[in-house]
């Protein structure tokens, strides 16, 4: 049931327990209990709207920042990664293989505020060797959702 | 020739005049073909693969088909001589019947069924003999019904499970009993298993290809339209023993030359990770099936348990309307399209076909409207 339930919720986190129960062939109470379990176990970490920032009257700036750091004797990359994660500006942090170590998604109100975050806060952390900041220009797809308005159902209305 | 106009076509003409219809009348997946498959077709065109292939289809593809049929259906076919790539399973059925039938040969097939079986048999100069299936048996095909219709002139039996329009599937004992019937009466069995991957409730499709000793009498039809959501590619295949395939291939080669090349490359790509491609679609179909069952039960509309394909076949006889009247009035009152069961044979009277190859939001709305409609009857 877990995969199907997550399919439903990824598509529409606001689906009612009654509809989910019909889809899964169980009772609404069983659905609610399963969701509570997934939340308790940390499999579902939260509930968020998928927002197309590009359409907001006052847009945000999103930057992707590649960070190279010096790993530490005890704990490797963890201390710096966790320190970076605490900043409100930082939306997501990943440890990566390849030419750099940490990949950050950073949100700001303007180019200037992101630039200031990088130069004043991020680059000055002990152990950060270098940063490379890339600004997002346009969103085409996010969280599995295409941002363009979906086209019509291309099928004929009645087929055998 | 007196071929009837397709009942589906007639209903299409009515529905297509209206705006904003929620259609449960569509016999094809709502999912688009997985992107890596579409991309393979595009790449093949970029690479200039725009020429004929061999008559039977790309050898790589036939090998992949033979592997898939062995793993998934339990059938053993030589890709060089026993696998043919066709333009949809419809072409496969047509050329098979024309290869097998002499004028006046009788062909058994079961109703309710896909709209083209009867006409295709007639076009191959055969005599279509319909065998009814019933809701009381979950629309499984019984050997008793077959025995009642078989004659010394019967040459072929055509079956389709999982079934369009009923959603019926066969159990292993049904498959064995029908296979025994075919052997007993010295028939050829043409098994259209286009919905093979779409089975629900933990049931797994039992293919006639898995019946020991049946291969010499079996033509297996399968393809990419349903499980891979590739209807527009028009790609399917025929598996048959070499002695039958010789003739089937002759007709194919004179009539079609070869299946479209870019579609063949797409199908080869489709064979790379079928389980991964199908899993999300299959999960969605099964949930929608559950949803329709629960919704119809709530609305007091009786329905057998559809265990395969993506069709529900609720019984609407108790509302006192014919299937056609029900469908037309539902369309008028609530702008929801379903297909009258009679489009699939006379014994479909009293039923309508509801496809759940439709997004859940539309399905929810349609179920609510149908429930509201039947309250007015």
List the helices and strands and how they pair.
The complex is a heterodimer of chains A (160) and B (377).
Chain A: H1 2-11, H2 17-24, H3 28-40, E1 61-69, H4 78-85, E2 90-95, E3 102-108, H5 111-122, E4 128-135, E5 141-142, E6 145-146
Antiparallel strand pairs in A: 1-3, 1-4, 2-3, 5-6
Helix pairs in contact in A: 2-3
Chain B: H1 7-15, E1 22-23, H2 35-46, H3 59-73, E2 83-87, H4 88-100, E3 106-111, H5 117-123, E4 127-132, H6 143-149, E5 154-159, H7 172-184, E6 188-192, E7 218-223, E8 235-239, H8 242-255, H9 261-270, H10 274-298, E9 311-312, H11 323-334, E10 336-337, E11 339-340, E12 352-355, H12 360-375
Parallel strand pairs in B: 1-10, 3-4, 3-5, 5-6, 6-7
Antiparallel strand pairs in B: 2-8, 7-8, 9-12, 11-12
Helix pairs in contact in B: 2-9, 4-5, 4-8, 10-12
How would you concisely characterize the structure shown here?
Chain A is an alpha+beta fold.
């Amino acid at each position: 049931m877990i995969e199907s339930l997550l399919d439903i919720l990824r598509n529409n986190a606001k689906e009612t327990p009654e509809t989910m129960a019909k889809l899964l062939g169980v009772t609404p109470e069983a659905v609610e209990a399963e969701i509570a379990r997934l939340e308790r176990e940390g499999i579902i970490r939260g509930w968020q709207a998928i927002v197309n920032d590009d359409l907001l009257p006052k847009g945000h700036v999103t930057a992707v920042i590649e960070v190279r750091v010096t790993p530490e004797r005890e704990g490797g990359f963890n201390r710096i990664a966790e320190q970076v994660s605490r900043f409100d500006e930082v939306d997501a942090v990943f440890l990566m293989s390849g030419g750099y170590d940490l990949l950050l998604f950073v949100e700001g109100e303007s180019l200037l505020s992101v630039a200031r975050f990088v130069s004043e806060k991020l680059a000055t952390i002990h152990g950060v060797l270098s940063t490379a900041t890339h600004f997002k220009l346009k969103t085409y797809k996010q969280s599995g959702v295409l941002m363009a308005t979906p086209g019509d159902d291309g099928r004929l209305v009645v087929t055998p | 020739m007196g071929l009837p106009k397709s009942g589906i076509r007639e209903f299409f003409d009515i529905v297509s005049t209206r705006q904003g219809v929620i259609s449960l009348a569509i016999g094809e997946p709502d999912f688009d073909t997985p992107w890596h498959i579409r991309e393979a077709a595009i790449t093949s065109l970029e690479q200039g693969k725009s020429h004929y292939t061999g008559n039977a289809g790309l050898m790589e593809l036939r090998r992949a088909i033979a592997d898939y049929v062995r793993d998934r259906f339990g059938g053993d076919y030589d890709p060089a001589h026993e696998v043919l790539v066709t333009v949809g399973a419809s072409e496969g059925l047509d050329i098979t019947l024309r290869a097998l039938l002499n004028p006046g040969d009788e062909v058994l097939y079961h109703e309710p069924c896909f709209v083209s079986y009867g006409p295709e048999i007639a076009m191959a100069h055969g005599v279509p003999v319909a065998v009814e299936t019933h809701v009381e048996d979950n629309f499984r095909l019984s050997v008793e019904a077959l025995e009642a219709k078989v004659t010394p002139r019967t040459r072929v039996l055509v079956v389709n499970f999982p079934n369009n329009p009923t959603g019926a599937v066969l159990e292993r004992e049904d498959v064995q009993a029908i296979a025994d019937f075919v052997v007993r009466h010295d028939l050829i069995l043409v098994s259209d298993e286009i919905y093979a991957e779409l089975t629900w409730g933990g049931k797994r499709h039992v293919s006639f290809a898995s019946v020991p000793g049946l291969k010499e009498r079996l033509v297996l039809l399968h393809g990419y339209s349903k499980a891979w959501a590739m209807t527009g590619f028009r790609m399917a295949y025929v598996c048959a023993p070499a002695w039958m395939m010789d003739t089937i291939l002759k007709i194919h080669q004179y009539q079609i030359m070869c299946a479209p090349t870019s579609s063949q490359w797409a199908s080869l790509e489709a064979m790379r990770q079928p389980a991964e491609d199908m899993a999300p679609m299959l999960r969605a179909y099964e949930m929608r099936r559950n949803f329709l069952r629960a919704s119809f039960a709530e609305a007091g509309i009786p329905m057998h348990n559809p265990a395969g394909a993506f069709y529900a076949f609720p019984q609407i006889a108790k509302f006192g309307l014919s299937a056609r009247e029900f469908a037309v009035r539902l369309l008028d009152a609530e702008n929801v399209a379903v297909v009258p069961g009679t489009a699939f044979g006379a014994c479909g009277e009293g039923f309508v076909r509801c496809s759940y190859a439709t997004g859940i939001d539309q399905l929810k709305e349609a179920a609510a409207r149908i429930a509201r409609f039947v309250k007015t009857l």
